[in-house]
Amino acid sequence: MKKKNIMQFIAFGVVGLSNTLVSQVVFMVCIAFGWHYIPSNAAAFILSVLNAYFWQSRFVFKADRSLERRVWWKTLLKTYISYAFTGLLLNSLLLMLWIDAVKIDRFTPPLTEFVNSLGVTISNKDLSADLCPLLNAVINIPLNFVINKFWAYRQKESDQSRKI
Question: pTM (2 decimals)?
Fold first, then answer.
């Protein structure tokens, strides 16, 4: 893998951490103002993806001036679509896979015992549900990077660069 791609992936991860923070803060503020969790989650999603678009456009997938100019609203729309696919659809499908098909809770008793020995009381079911988003992240983060890099933020060759 090229150094540029590695640096982009690291920057993508940093933006992802800020997205998580934005999402959590917006969700918690909405809940504190008495909103139901569904609109709170929607507001958190909308603002965290807007945050992703802003930072990714400036630092992760910077526009190349020698290529065709990006149309900002198309890139923003594609960013929302990519995050909706990985963050909402794929994440839900993977949760069903881990919890209902694989039945991941059958693999976690030793870990549950260890956590409980530290004085934190947690059930095997709770621990397995807490681990699933981490498993999903291992799949979703690289996939989201690829979708954003090669689809949402992709630039075509400009007419001038084709003539050269």
Answer: 0.81
